[in-house]
Each structure stands twice: as structure tokens, then as C-alpha cells.
Amino acid sequence: MDQPTDIKNYLTQVDADRKEAFAQLYTTVKNNIPKGFEEQFIYNQIGFVVPKSIYPAGYHCTPELALPFVTLAAQKSHLALYHMGIYMMPEVYDWFVSEYPNHSKRKLDMGKSCIRFKKTDDIPFDLIAQLMQKISVDDYVTTYESILNRKK
């Protein structure tokens, strides 16, 4: 994949054998994410962020950037969904981990915020849709700020 410059360019560069699944993953996230989050090309990936118009402080590590919430990536060996809500909210993490086997025959492959899909034929799009609907912009910002304040 050449270095993509925007979302449209990114989508066109996904490997042919994974393009359809990635497009469906993107559409699932986009159609189910709550109002207030904004789509942006961020970290050379497709992202959904809390825009600076809602949260002017931006991301504490890089304040000039909007606060990231979800990013999607087509990596060499897998498709990835990075979801910061799962990382910051144990109740959402626990819900997702317990629900996953009810929606997929494959073993969950997950890091702190990253859900990896090595095989595209069994991505639980319905579960991803539910995950996107779990956290509002306000709830996410409130959780983010409470975690930042604990670290101070």
C-alpha cells in the first residue's frame, strides 16, 4: 500500500482480497457511531474522533489533533479496529469479550484497544455495530478526562 493521503485514497488501496470486508467494516462503524464523532484521516488510518469544536483540548499526547476514538486499518496480516472505549471502559471491554463468541466462530484476537481480524469471512459486523452504539461523545469525553485527572 502506498502512503494514503485521505480516506478515499485509503479505501482504494486495500488489498483486493480484503477490500470488500474492509469496506463493510468501515460502513458498519460509520453508520453506527453516535452523533458528534467526526470522520477524519488520522495516523494514516481512517478515524473517528471527538472534533476540536466539541473538545478543544484535543488529544493530550498531541493537542493539535482531535481526540481519537476509533480507527480502522488494513495491516499486512489483518484488518484492525482500534477502539479507545474498550481500552478505557472495563464494562464495555467485558461486554464485548463475553459477547464475541456469540457472534463469531473464530477466537477473539485482541490487544488493549485493537481488535484484529485475520480472516475476513467471520467478522461479526452486527457486534461491531452494537459496540459503536455503546458510547456517546459525552460519555467518552467524561471517561477520558477522569482518566487524565487520575494520572495528574
Q: Number of helical runs? A: 6
Our Rg estimate from Cα atoms comes to: 15 Å
Quick check: average pLDDT?
94
Shape call: globular
The parts where pLDDT drops under 50 for at least 5 residues are: none
Largest sheet: 6 strands, antiparallel
Keywords:
six-stranded antiparallel β-sheet; 20% strand; 6 strands; 152 residues; 41% helix; alpha+beta
Task: Report on this structure.
With about 150 residues, this protein is an alpha+beta fold. About 40% of the residues lie in helices and about 20% in strands. Strands 1-2-3-4-6-5 form a six-stranded antiparallel beta sheet. Strand 3 and strand 4 (about 80-85) form a beta hairpin. Helix 2 (about 15-30) packs parallel to helix 5 (about 125-135). It is globular. The mean pLDDT is about 95.
Task: Describe the structure in brief.
This protein is of the alpha+beta class. Helix content is 41%, strand content 20%.
Task: Give the SSE layout.
Layout: H1 7-13, H2 16-32, E1 38-42, E2 45-50, E3 67-74, E4 79-83, H3 84-88, H4 90-99, E5 109-110, E6 114-117, H5 125-133, H6 137-151
Antiparallel strand pairs: 1-2, 2-3, 3-4, 4-6, 5-6
Helix pairs in contact: 2-5
